[in-house]
Amino acid sequence: MTPSVRVIPNAATRAVSLLRTIQYTHPPSCPCHSNPNHHHHHIPPAPTFTPRPLRTSGASSARRYATPAEPLKEYAFEMAASSIRFGPGSTQEVGLDLKNMGANRVAVVTDPTVDRLVAMDQVRQSLDREGISYRVYNSTRVEPKDSSVRHAIDWARPYAPDVFLAVGGGSVIDTAKLMNLYSCYPDADFLDFVNAPIGRGLPVDKPLKPLIAVPTTAGTGSETTGTAIFDLVERRAKTGVAHRNLKPTLGICDPLNTATMPAAVKAASGLDVLCHALESWTAIPYNQRVPRPNNPINRPAYQGANPISDVFSFHALRSTIKYLPRAIRNPDDHEAQSEMLLAATLAGVGFGNAGVHLCHGMSYPISGQNPTQYRHPGYDVPHPLIPHGVSVAVTAPAVFRFTAASNPERHLAAAEVFGVDVSRVRKEDVGAVLADAIAKFLADLGDQPNGIKALGFTSADVDALVEGTLPQRRVLMLAPALEDDVQREREQLRALFENAMTHH
Amino acid sequence: MTPSVRVIPNAATRAVSLLRTIQYTHPPSCPCHSNPNHHHHHIPPAPTFTPRPLRTSGASSARRYATPAEPLKEYAFEMAASSIRFGPGSTQEVGLDLKNMGANRVAVVTDPTVDRLVAMDQVRQSLDREGISYRVYNSTRVEPKDSSVRHAIDWARPYAPDVFLAVGGGSVIDTAKLMNLYSCYPDADFLDFVNAPIGRGLPVDKPLKPLIAVPTTAGTGSETTGTAIFDLVERRAKTGVAHRNLKPTLGICDPLNTATMPAAVKAASGLDVLCHALESWTAIPYNQRVPRPNNPINRPAYQGANPISDVFSFHALRSTIKYLPRAIRNPDDHEAQSEMLLAATLAGVGFGNAGVHLCHGMSYPISGQNPTQYRHPGYDVPHPLIPHGVSVAVTAPAVFRFTAASNPERHLAAAEVFGVDVSRVRKEDVGAVLADAIAKFLADLGDQPNGIKALGFTSADVDALVEGTLPQRRVLMLAPALEDDVQREREQLRALFENAMTHH
């Protein structure tokens, strides 16, 4: 191997620091960015710069200085996160929180499994102790469908809660967000707020009721984000609603609650964290996203990598690689469990503001189509299931091999965190090096499929997988190295699924 | 020099990662912590652990398992921050933000200087364009006093704004927070919410009106915190109000607004950022703070260093050391200006949740007493002035020489960021090494006093300085290495001020 020229030696911190300089403030140095306007200076020349938001709506009218062929790129980013409380036993404080808020009609949202665990026991004790009036909805479905979400909304609307309290994993917290949203908009059509192009993607233009989220898995980071995901069965698509106003008021992260996760759930949840971190770290920079919004309310939560999300995402990446194997291996390793819960939350803040891209976009048809009725080992559910985290991570080697050319420095910094000696990696080898590191990490965890073939997919399924991925515009628009032309994009996705059949 | 045993070689990241492990999860290893209960495991043994918040109020009743002589230590931390929008020109979006919120009585708070600058020009244009009804209060005082704050409150109460919009430095944003607070509590006594023991320190038990903050300096980070500071003249003390509910709804960080800062203001503001980062990074860990609150509403915003604040504080430290000298030297270095604004905001999130300690506690009497009517060069004000950032940084070499023994690893990691080769530093030399690095950094900036003697203080002033520091309990309680006994604490503070006479 010959020594690399552009690659920063050793310390990840220095790489990160330099990368930010390169990525956000200097002319293009990445081979794949041939467009000379692909990178922007932080502060463009003053007179032509001033971005004046227009009052009319619609994407095209937002382009003030640009012809339709050259939409204006984004120039700002916005960082929003729930308040986070972290501490073993902090679940018991929730009754006082509700009392402090003056709550007297609390909708406690959970699922049948969590309803029997220590988390719900602590919640009930705490609410009862403070004399809080509440009702429990425990019919949330793992990997919610529109039908299960509608069922939950139908329960919530007549009760008219003044506060929502979600106790569970991402499915529960996401369902509670949607219950809150559609209770506050009683006349809205179900598709009004669902992400375009599947739904109408309307912004949530008023504050919702307070939502407190108590996660019982260390995975989705849903306690900090404004995103809620579900299966829209008639469209055979995973979709959702994403707006800052959906985010919980407070996330109570209590490591005693995640201690109840079986090892398989720990692994799948932790792989979701890994991909949240890797995808948001490598998403296109916010200032390459188009179009610039015409009103700040239209700035998406998933806005591309930015200097604040970077801090969260990279930190979460380091923690996950360090602590996830320990957390799975040893249920008594409280430090590792606790650090994984923290990593999940920090990654949530990172991707909640930067977004995810290909692993997540491709995971939705993987989980949804499941052609051989695969049921993941260690999951005690009465139906076939490719857990979300598994479906996300299974394509990660192929995805990052593909995206590495868009930003070799960032991908190399990630490879270094996996323990790779990156001092002599050539730029053109970065993708392969990172892919191998991820594949090895997955293999070492145990019980992870060695590609989508192991989940029952064959080449005959690839077209359907591609068609199931294409509607995920919200995440695909953040994918580096993906081309604008839809035919070309289709080919790229097809190649990605083929390459994801087995890890090399 | 002999090689150090406990010190981590080179990469700051590794040090940080390891330090967190040491600090939060392992038995004591610091020489100054002889109390075996000084460090806590993340997850204590289950049955004795469960922290049950009590409903009765008062610090002593919070101690469930402890005798009065052994108050229970904190076991959780809470992270809250304003939403942050960052981008050059983003000030122009504020009219649409207000419109989106349905605002129709906006109190725009600024000061006479900022009222003539580009920031206020952009704000007026934006509000006028959207047809927002507003009034401007431009009489905010730099380094506010209770009288100027009362004046502002008296203006706000009859106007009864539905949204506050602060455009200016920390003084303006802090004043706007207090206008908001006391407008929402029209019957409150001025001292009700002021930090104890000077005021009654009542918690802010309901949400206030929305506050949007547009900082025009890169310093206080007030756009992200729930803290408001002012001089209480009758008590000759800097004090303030600190509660999460005071924090702005949104901080709009626009590098075009900070470009108008004179070099001297850039330097002083940036030194405030430096100390926010250093102090919050070295504050006592949250789980060594006593007492554990009896209700989460009583958990202070300044709760000690915690794993999330660490990420922010250390990142801000690196940015400040890298970019502040460039930002001061060259007003056209837009990258450095922009990075300093970002660092100020990130440091705000860090110290806003972890707190500051000795530099800030000691700065209040330094600024307030100013015995020789010192006026800092480059400040165009009609009265004597030791700028806040100058009064904070001037004691930093003495402070960190003193605190280093409490946690040599963290102090060494900080020294490394200043560019010191730390590979051969002995543990007992860490304080001196960091002090020298800070003193050199200050000297290289230019126009910084070489200690408090250069600000006009002599040994005859030390008693008054100590007495002016002692009431700052909220920050002193977070100071590492400070003793509980008030006589001993007095001696320690006296020594600190004497050592701060000149930088060694």
UniProtKB/TrEMBL annotation, chains A, B:
Record Gene3D superfamilies: 3.40.50.1970, Dehydroquinate synthase-like - alpha domain (1.20.1090.10)
UniProt keyword list: Mitochondrion, Oxidoreductase, Transit peptide
Fe-containing alcohol dehydrogenase-like C-terminal domain mapped to chain residues: 304-480
All copies of domain Alcohol dehydrogenase iron-type/glycerol dehydrogenase GldA, residue ranges: 82-255
Organism: Sodiomyces alkalinus (strain CBS 110278 / VKM F-3762 / F11) (Alkaliphilic filamentous fungus)
Family classification: Belongs to the iron-containing alcohol dehydrogenase family. Hydroxyacid-oxoacid transhydrogenase subfamily.
Enzyme Commission designation: 1.1.99.24
Region feature Disordered, mapped onto this chain: 36-64
UniProt enzyme class: oxidoreductase
GO cellular component, one term: mitochondrion
Main location as per UniProt: mitochondrion
Name of the protein this chain belongs to: hydroxyacid-oxoacid transhydrogenase
